[in-house]
Design brief:
With 232 residues, the chain is α/β, with parallel strands linked by helices. It is 40% helix and 23% strand. Strands 2-1-3-6-7 form a 5-stranded parallel sheet, with helices on both faces. Helix 1 packs across helix 5 and helix 6 packs antiparallel against helix 7. It comes from Desulfurivibrio alkaliphilus (strain DSM 19089 / UNIQEM U267 / AHT2).
Length: 232
């Protein structure tokens, strides 16, 4: 498996040097950008598994980059020297995987990066009967074989065949965007229809089952004009 590609965006050279050193010790590939313009150029030219993004950049708001990353299906975590609850909430609302408040310990950086990186299929929870059947999604355990969701509080939600197929595609994409075209091809037969509205309705149904607030999804994100991806 190829090593994760990580971009760190911060105007503080000391912080960039620290992050680079800590990340490289994990055997991961890391690039650095010092401002919003550099970050946007690098994101446009290369594909990253994760972006570690400072909110306070000299030429713009880091949240603007976060919104673009969310639309492109790129996982990102935010870091800032301010411990502002509203700022943190805004970050999560636009799709941030996690949040770091400076100063932080290097071990905390690595811990949060590991949590934010798209989860490879081989890292999924397993059972003796079927090692690939279970997957953890936020507070839910997804059992694709039984078309079943089990919450940590014990609640259960049954999935239709179409919902199971949709979740399986999103899980296999490991946090990347799955196009509406691909989803439609996979679920059209089980849903009995063959137009894009079918996909949107299916996503809406699934969100009602797994999201705490379906109007503000935290697990299934929309990549506008492209498709859908998993967060959480």
């Amino acid at each position: 498996m190829s090593k994760p590609q990580i971009l760190v965006v911060d105007d503080d050279l000391t912080m960039l040097s620290l992050c680079r050193s800590v990340i490289e010790r994990q055997g991961w590939s890391v690039d650095c950008a010092r401002n919003k313009q550099q970050a946007e150029e690098m994101v446009g030219e290369r594909q990253f598994d994760l972006v570690v993004l400072d909110l306070n950049l000299p030429d713009g708001d880091g949240l603007d980059i976060g919104r673009r990353l969310q639309q492109q299906g790129v996982s990102f975590l935010l870091m800032t020297a301010r411990s502002d609850p509203q700022e943190r909430l805004t970050g999560f609302e636009i799709g941030a995987a996690d949040y770091l408040v400076k100063p932080f310990h290097p071990n905390e950086l690595i811990y949060r990066i590991k949590r934010a990186l798209p989860q490879p299929a081989e890292a999924r929870p397993s059972t003796p009967d079927n090692p690939d059947a279970l997957y953890r999604l936020g507070p839910w355990q997804v059992d694709l074989d039984r078309h079943l969701l089990i919450n940590i509080d014990g609640r259960r939600e049954e999935l239709t065949l179409g919902e199971s197929k949709l979740l399986a595609m999103l899980i296999d994409a490991r946090g990347r965007v799955v196009s509406r075209e691909r989803i439609l091809q996979a679920v059209a037969r089980s849903e009995g229809e063959g137009h894009y509205r079918t996909v949107d309705v299916l996503v809406s149904r699934l969100r009602k089952k797994i999201e705490e607030d379906p109007r503000k999804p935290a697990l299934i994100f929309t990549a506008f004009g492209m498709g859908y991806r998993l967060g959480g």
